[in-house]
Amino acid sequence: MQIGDLVSGFFEDPVLVAIVAILLGFVFFVYLFLRRTAKGFKEGMNQGRQ
């Protein structure tokens, strides 16, 4: 079994592609959410010192 066979087999299954796309979207959303939360916390701490 070669890498090309795995890749072509992966793209032939739309359910698997959809699951991977949803998982990647979820991970990206969580990253953006945590980044926004940390940035807001940092700005709040800086404003509290002033």
UniProtKB/TrEMBL annotation:
Keyword annotations from UniProtKB, A to Z: Membrane, Transmembrane, Transmembrane helix
Residues annotated as transmembrane: 15-34
Short name of one Pfam family: DUF7859
Protein name: Uncharacterized protein
